[in-house]
Specification:
The complex is a heterodimer. Chain A is mainly α. Chain A has 16 helices and 4 strands. Chain A has helices at residues 6-26, 36-49, 65-74, 79-97, 104-127, 145-166, 175-185, 189-207, 211-243, 262-276, 281-293, 309-323, 328-337, 351-366, 373-387, 390-404, and strands at 53-56, 59-63, 131-133, 142-144. A two-stranded antiparallel ribbon of chain A has the order 1-2. A two-stranded antiparallel sheet of chain A has the order 3-4. In chain A, α2 (36-49) runs antiparallel to α3 (65-74). The longest helix of chain A is centred in the middle third of the chain and has 33 residues, at 211-243. Chain A starts with 5 loop residues before the first helix and ends in a 6-residue tail after the last helix. In chain B, a hairpin with a 2-residue loop joins β1 and β2. In chain B, α16 runs antiparallel to α17 (373-386). Chain B has a two-stranded antiparallel sheet with strand order 1-2. The termini of chain B are far apart. Classes of the chains: A mainly alpha, B mainly alpha. Chains A and B meet through α8, α9 and α12 of A and α7, α8 and α13 of B.
Chain lengths: 410, 426
């Protein structure tokens, strides 16, 4: 099965987004509107808060500026204004963040997404032409229900989905599952952004431009909590990855039984294979952790010991259990990867992750030069013999094929 | 009296106010060990605006059940104080708001009224912190002004936040109370995230301790060493008033400071006799190896120097880099001294544990050359404060493998001839 044509997919999504934005004029925009000065102030505010990302574990980062732009959309700003706002904010944020990975197509994608969101607001208002007005005549709050719902759906579903699609890296299988996981991954930040935008739209008639700093206070409070959670989660994963180095050799240090960087490489490869076979995000995390720790049994054994794969894996399982009771699923995978015969071939809970790690470990240790045809064939034979799972082996080959095309010629 | 009457509060308003404050207080979140964030302040300011100062004062009774439930000791005193200071603070802020809005003939949400809300919030916070600082300074040796001054940064952060949220909440409430649900979303997300962070923090703690235990498992003599160095380093950092976040980093870095020894053969680490130059060269690599293992852990980056430099000396004669004191930050100096102290006060393969007094005397002898004198004295204070005891015991004689451990010094292990520069290895 061929991989997804990523440029084609992006092209289709871009055209769809542009068409959606054009509908804003077809449907005569929203009932509210923003003056030029107000739009400029919104643009400045979006640029100021663009560098502030809301990061969350297992979810894609979202900029705080999305809340500002969403408020402007609900208040009736046109697609041209909001897209320009998003573009300027993105450029300013990029300069401040000094991110070397940013590309111009990211800027285009951002502007098209906002353009489309504005058009979606107009569609929402047309489909649901209900308006909410506040009780207090002094305050004169006014909210288009349809536009608000449409913008909310766009942020909660459309934004993470489009980000996930952009990051598929050509993976066609289980695309919908990955998109859904991306949507679920933003279940904390997404509603917070939406609620903030709605709050801003509600209080704007009273507070005017003071709405912007005021409405961002609860959002920034949520960001503090999510940021702490993200940092803690990342520290957890990074520490596990660091511990993968414990049994390895160091350039200027004592000889260890494991090649340098083996744990990290196996982890990277195992993650891709796990995604390729369609494991859910939670299990992918367990696979990656187990991949990092699969050689940890060496620290329990004497330096001059020559254990079998089964003994090493069993020792590894013991060490991982000793480290933390919460790593029990990881320990089970580690101890099974050296004794694949102990689980049925249809066991997906422990057996499948264990076979993935066994395959990636074999490849990293014994598949040095995939450019050589004879070595490729030998490696494939070894993989099939040692792992015994054609699903895993073929997934691994597809991952390698995408990474460097080395297998494409066979 | 004085031409002003205290407003009445209807029963419904009183019950709603009390419930709102109780809920807000119950939903408070611990951001770190010494900081708890409560929404009660925001609810009180909203009550000033929408229900009047009397309702806000009555609402402070909502604190009572929460304090009683959470208090671990002296719950009666805590309840009386917390309720009283909340009521006094609420009265100060609330009646100021009522008086000024009456005087200026303005109503919320006009610009003038919003300004008065700001003033009322500031007054409420000042009175609140004033009273808390008073009781803290009475029950501790710290003077009142110093205590109040230490609370100012928290107040500077809290007042604008509470003010912004309160104004927004009041505006929404005036439109429709149901709109407060929109404000509840980010607040609840913040709370959920912070609680999840607390749980994950505990898990991370277990993870790191677990790894260190697994690494030290094979070595009977250094089991528990990293744990003790971490605990004692934290105590010393508290003595030296190191900021909270740095103390936390120091604790983790100290726990992991010897992780690089995992590659050093056990026979070298536990060799009972003098080390050869080659063997010592192997041991000297462990700080670099440890740094290499831990370098990808972002949050540890500010404290990675502890792992890198924990065998360096002020006079530049340490290892592996031979840097002098100028490159050794305070937290590095803390762990260096504590590491040596624990090495001296625990039984190793080559000598028995020294007493705490003997170990401190040795540290003082080397202060200024190997160790920071200020750190050594802080270590002595911390040891005395907690009654630190040396680690001399084994589970059984069998663990000593039938050997007699000499009562010599560590110096003799490194340099029986007296030429080695390391005075106190660890």
């Amino acid at each position: 099965m061929k991989a997804v044509n990523a440029p084609l997919l992006r092209g289709v999504l871009t055209l769809a987004g542009l068409g959606l934005g054009v509908l804003w004029w077809q449907l005569d925009g929203l009932d509210q509107g923003l003056g030029l000065t107000e739009m400029l102030i919104f643009a400045v505010a979006a640029a100021i808060v663009e560098p502030l990302l809301i990061r969350q574990p297992r979810g894609l980062p979202i900029s705080v500026s999305v809340a500002v732009i969403a408020t402007a959309i609900i208040l009736g700003a046109s697609p041209v204004v909001t897209a320009a706002m998003a573009g300027v904010a993105w450029i300013v944020g990029s300069v401040i963040r000094k991110d070397p990975n940013l590309k111009s197509q990211d800027l285009l994608g951002r502007m098209v997404a906002v353009w489309a969101l504005t058009g979606l607001a107009a569609v929402g208002q047309t489909v649901m032409p209900y308006v909410w007005r506040g009780n207090d005549p002094q305050v004169a709050s006014f909210l288009s229900i349809g536009a608000t719902v449409a913008v909310s759906v766009g942020i909660l579903v459309g934004l993470p989905a489009s980000q996930a699609l952009a990051e598929t890296q050509g993976r066609r299988r289980h695309l919908l599952k990955r998109v859904w996981e991306a949507v679920v991954g933003t279940r904390l930040a997404g509603p917070t952004i939406v609620a903030t935008a709605v709050l801003g739209a509600l209080v704007y008639p009273v507070l005017g431009v003071w709405t912007l700093p005021t409405m961002l206070i609860p959002l920034l409070a949520a960001r503090v909590g999510l940021q702490r959670l993200f940092v803690s989660d990342r520290a957890y994963e990074q520490t596990i990855r660091a511990m993968s180095r414990l049994p390895e050799r160091f350039d200027d240090g004592p000889v260890g039984p494991v090649p340098r960087g083996h744990g990290v490489r196996v982890g990277q490869l195992a993650r891709e294979v796990a995604l390729e076979v369609g494991l859910p995000a939670r299990r992918v995390t367990d696979v990656v952790r187990a991949a990092h720790l699969h050689e940890l049994g060496h620290i329990e054994l004497e330096n001059d010991a020559d254990p079998t794969a089964k003994q090493l894996a069993a020792a590894g399982g013991r060490v991982v259990r000793q480290v933390s009771s919460q790593l029990e699923p990881v320990a089970a995978i580690v101890e099974t990867h050296g004794d694949l015969q102990s689980v049925p071939i249809d066991d997906d809970e422990v057996g499948l992750p264990a076979r993935i790690i066994a395959a990636c470990c074999v490849l990293d240790r014994y598949g040095p030069d995939l450019g050589e045809r004879s070595q490729r064939e030998e490696t494939v034979v070894r993989l099939v013999r040692d792992v015994g799972d054609l699903t895993v082996v073929s997934a691994l080959l597809r991952v390698l094929d995408r990474q460097d095309g080395a297998w494409a010629a066979t | 009296m004085l031409g002003y009457s205290i407003g009445r509060v209807s029963l419904v308003a009183a019950v709603v106010s009390i419930l709102a404050i109780a809920l807000a207080e119950a939903f408070s979140v611990t951001i770190r060990d010494d900081i708890q964030v409560s929404l009660a302040n925001i609810v009180l300011v909203v009550l000033f605006i929408v229900a009047g100062p009397a309702a806000a004062v009555v609402g402070t009774l909502g604190v009572v059940p929460v304090v009683i439930f959470r208090a671990t000791d002296r719950w009666g005193l805590r309840t009386v104080f917390n309720t009283g200071q909340g009521a006094v603070s609420a009265a100060a802020g609330g009646y100021l708001y009522a008086a000024l809005t009456d005087l200026a003939q303005v109503e919320f949400p006009s610009a003038a009224a919003i300004g008065i809300v700001g003033l009322a919030t500031l007054t409420y916070s000042l009175v609140n912190y004033f009273l808390v600082a008073g009781v803290v300074s009475v029950s501790s040796p710290d003077p009142f002004l110093a205590t109040f001054g230490s609370m100012v940064p928290a107040m500077v952060m809290q007042v604008p936040t509470a003010l912004g949220l309160a104004i927004m909440a009041a505006l929404l409430y005036l439109q429709s109370p149901w709109l407060l649900l929109a404000l509840a979303v980010p607040v609840l997300v913040a709370r959920y995230a912070l609680r999840a962070f607390e749980r994950l923090d505990t898990s991370y703690d277990e993870l790191v301790h677990g790894f260190v235990t697994a690494i030290e498992h094979k070595d009977l003599y250094t089991r528990g060493h990293s744990e003790r160095v971490s605990k004692l380093s934290t105590l010393v950092a508290e003595e030296l008033r190191v900021p909270y976040e740095q103390r936390r980093l120091t604790a983790y870095a100290a726990l992991l400071h010897d992780v690089g020894k995992v590659g050093v053969p056990l026979c070298i680490i536990n060799k009972p006799g003098p080390l050869t130059d080659e063997e010592f060269a192997e041991i000297k690599k462990h700080p670099t190896i440890g740094e290499e293992i831990l370098q990808d852990i972002d949050f540890l980056a500010p404290a990675i120097a502890i792992v890198r430099f924990h065998h360096e000396r002020l006079d530049g004669k340490g290892y592996p880099y031979g840097v002098d004191g100028e490159q050794l930050s305070q937290i590095v100096r803390i762990v260096t001294a504590v590491d040596a102290f624990d090495a001296m006060t625990s039984t190793r393969s080559y000598r028995r544990a020294l007493s705490v007094e003997a170990a401190l005397a040795e540290l003082r002898r080397c202060a200024g050359r190997q160790f920071d004198p200020t750190v050594v004295e802080a270590l002595a204070s911390a040891v005395e404060r907690v009654g630190w005891q040396p680690t001399t015991d084994f589970a059984s004689e069998m663990h000593l493998h039938g050997r007699q451990i000499p009562i010599g010094t560590a110096q003799e292990r490194l340099d029986p001839g007296g030429g080695n520069t390391a005075e106190i290895p660890s």
